[in-house]
Model the fold of this input.
Amino acid sequence: MRVTQFAALGAALSLTAMTAQAGTLEDVQARGELNCVVTTGVAGFAAPDENGKWTGFDVDFCRAVAAAVLGDGEKVKFVPTTGKTRFTVLNSGEGDILFRNTTETMSRDADLKLTFLPVNYYDGQGFLIRKELGINSAKDLDGASICIQTGTTTELNLADFFRVNGMSYEPVAIETNEEGITNYSANRCDVYTTDASGLASTRAALDDPSAHIILPEIISKEPLGGAVRHGDDQWADISKWVVNAIIIAEELGVTAANVAEHAAAAGDNPSINRLLGTEGDMGAMIGLDKDWAARAISAVGNYAESFDRNIGPDTPIGLARGLNASWKDGGILYAAPIR
Amino acid sequence: MSETTLSQPQRNIVSRLWNDKETRSIIIQIIAFAAIFALFFYMVRNAVINLEAIGKDISFDFLWQPASYDISQSLVEYTSRSSHFTAMIVGIINTLLIAVFGILLSTVLGFLLGVLRLSKNWVTNKLAYVYIEYTRNVPVLLHILLIHGLIVHALPLPKNAINVSDAAFLTNRGFFLPSPEIQPLFWFVLALFVMGIIFSIWFRSYAKRVQDETGKYYPVFWISLSAIMGFPLIMYFLLGSPIDWQIPELKGFNYKGGMVIRPEFIALWIALSCYTAAFIGEIVRSGITAVSWGQTEAASALGVSRGRTLSLVVIPQALRIIIPPLTSQYLNITKNSSLAIAIGYMDIVATIGGISLNQTGREMECMTIVLLLYLTFSLLISAFMNWYNKRIKLTER
Amino acid sequence: MEKNNLSATGSTMKPDYVIGEHPDLPPPSNTIGPIAWIRDNLLSSPANIVMTILSIFFLYKILPPSLDWMFFDAAFVGEDRNACRAVADGACWAFISERFKLFTYGFYPIENRWRVDLSFVLLVIAVIPILFDKTPFRKYGLWFAMVFPFIAGWLLVGGFGLDPVPTEKFGGFMLTLVVGITGIAFSLPLGILLALGRQSNLPIIKVFCVSFIEFIRGVPLITLLFVASTMLSYFLPPGTNFDLLLRVLIMVTLFSAGYMAEVIRGGLQAIPKGQFEASDAMGLKYWPSMRLIVLPQALKISIPGIVNTFIGLYKDTTLVIIIGLLDPLGIGRASLSDTKWTGLSNEVYLFVALFFFVSCFAMSRYSLYLENKLQTEHRR
Done:
């Protein structure tokens, strides 16, 4: 009786378990699907629409990697996580790659055993507050109730900021962004704090966006980027160069519309040729074919296209490029060259 | 012929052992033990390999590092420079706080509901019925979210706080109450209070002895009450009210000074208590109806008054039926307090199992701590209720 | 005899009824009718009057504003939140109706949603013979109910000729039903085994079962779910990775099996010792004696407790939201992050509450019906 039970248990385990000793690239290709870790929903960055299709700026990077590796930007399985579960989901192998408004820090890199990809959004923590309170500086926030999303760097920055400035506050720790908005709009807190990009998307979602302002102080550096697990350098390289390729495409003027044309034959610009594989074979160095970057760009477009489509000035989020403009336009978005 | 009979037992030694009840039970147990042990060993081995692969170790050193985050409700000294261990203590205290307050309120509400359900008044009875059915059949997480939403939406901002006689202020940031500042003379009052309790305990057993021997009856309740409450109160006023009350004042965004009960605590407390009270109400009702009607009739035939019938005949018997399921409701309230995380009340799961876990990345260590803490609470509550249950158990003579 | 004579003779004193068969007179007018009812039930004593007044005052305070918000001031159609606000101040049910499909099916592919519908129809067919013992062809129905979880699993997950649907697409009420029904179907047998193990004479088995049950009952479900979602993969062979939903199903099943075991243990303990001794005397071995004598009686006693455990399990499915599965509440919260609909959390909570109330109330009514049916003892 007992023996048969264990036999059945073993059979059940071996049926459901997929053993994967090979590298992440082989796993993903064998599976035919990329497991991408995203948020449970931040408008503009990653959120499901009414048909359950995920869209957003971070989502585009997932799709770009999938397009490069699998040839199809739709072959992504999105794993929604809270701020708290994201790293464990990645580290336990449930996700292959993480694009989830994640700040690169030393302890996360070294202690949480993550390899960070190039920064795809330069951000900083700010404060959203009601205009009617008449506050113009974060230095005047003594005694305020502040909503924070837990599991992020924001609670640490906030504690440091108030400590350094000798002020007190009441932290209201919230698990998800939606809950944060609900609490802020119900006036449970005077201030909502998170990365400035998140504040813009929060503000856009409020009843009357014009009644709220974002305070000028940015109290932290938040370089947001994707991440993969330690220990698979090839996979880290692939992910890193897909992100770089998307950024470089903007510098070179390659868009989703003209990428096919550029990729058809080698042109005059050697940089474009190397990017799109019409010259040399950069793809082979990371274990992919020549067209890897062309596929990624045709799936989601270049950095500017994705930015404008998801979070740019014409969207409800309405973020300006600011720091995130290409270095050629005076921003600090600067990708290592492909050569 | 004789050869076969000799070798028969040897050939079938296995089946013979199997057919012997004692041997079989030993064999089954050895197999089960080996299987469980092997499974356990296998899982630990996997964990070691997996942790090695990503270069993590198991260590509780992080507990002594600064937690670096702030907590809104803390009964002990805590700042963002305190250690993760202190944060854990804050979490434990907050969990226990909600558990104790929840158990108290849900018991009171539950007994009230149980009595209302037995009431002859049709409207009250049906109202209690509708309340119980609605509450029991909707998940507790929804109750918590709904009540939190209600409190946060319905109560005013600090500017327009509901002012209770210039001492307490109700806002959606919390209930701001005056906090006591004790002066030395107050210790006399406290000493009198403690003496009152000791006296009452002695007096109760003395009164029982006298009643057993002579049948003379003392009003134990009233005498005890005046000893515990009355004399200290008189002393308190005689000494000129030796407590200063610090009244909260509106400064900037919020009230300062005094003490504050956060809306998260209130929402969780009310939601858990109301939810559990519905279950307790049904337990109380069925406990009371389960006491045979003959008991009440017998009591009234002996001329025992209605009130004393209830307190001496019905309730002691009903309690025996009520206590075991009540225990599991108390356990449920303690465990359900972990849903605090949904509204941001900083209990164990939110501190050591939440922010600390996330900032340090030590899932194994933090989750082990959380599981062990809850197990400890549950075992303590069970042990206490078992002791109480034994005490009131029917002693058959 | 005398009666017949009287009526037959037709004397002048003839009453218009047969003697001894006078039709019942109506009760005194002050003991019937609405007025008497009110006096008996609402106003029988001063305390009673106070309670009635308090209750009615409470109803007056609560009911009209709630009804206004829910129905009379509510907007049922509208493009977005602002369209709702423009029409009415109350609830904005347009939100729910726009997202109704999402609430029902989650992200299940549209072209395959017939499989969810079919599974639901099969569920109803499988459940009826379990619930009512007068169902025609009940025996075959029960066999069908036994294989139903596997058929439904195949229909929903796919494979073997159907398009495979990854379990991340599961969501909404469908996810609630999947988790709830799987937990219910598998926790009962497991709970029976655990309860028997706890009563067993074999010390090691007993110790194992007792510690398992006490562990499960001692910790909150969300910590177990959290273990399942984050730590479990550390305990599996390197590189093994199995479905999050499956892990949740296993945890939920184990969790409710722990509670089920205690309910069934109560039933086992209520069986007189003579029953065990009698089956021993009949020479029955352990399993036959359990199957034929002990368990049928023990399960019958524990049915109300079992159904209550089911209800608890079903309600607990809302907790999967905490580890990122999108049950109705999770779908609702994700939808709230859509700029069109933010701030409508009360509508979401009430809608989900209604769903749970209807299903749990039905289950608890059924439990009462069974309790009454099975109660064969003398009642007061």
Summary: The first strand of chain A starts at residue 34 and ends at 39. The mean pLDDT of chain A is 84. Chain A touches chain B at residues 2-3, 6, 83-84, 87-88, 91, 108, 111-113, 133, 141-145, 150-151, 155-156, 158-160, 162-163, 169-175, 179, 182-183, 186-188, 190, 229-231 (CB under 8 Å).
